[in-house]
Amino acid sequence: MTKSVIKIISPGLLSTIQDLGRYGFQHLGIPESGAMDKFALRVGNSLLGNPENRAAIEITGIGPSLIFLENI
After folding, report:
1. Confidence (pTM)
2. Residues of the domain holding 42
3. How many domains does the chain have?
4. Is 12 within the bounds of a domain?
């Protein structure tokens, strides 16, 4: 089990974990889904040195209240 480094106090309104989505399953009725701004997700991951499809917190509406337990 990995160690938690972020404590979520309040998730905010419509905060979700998103990646670039799933392709090739539309014929089964499964939507592509994924981040609303895929370009921003790719750029953010690139700036952090992460793989392009690394998941991120997508925040819309009212943002969450978070406590970072370690420097990350």
Report:
1. 0.75
2. 24-72
3. 1
4. no
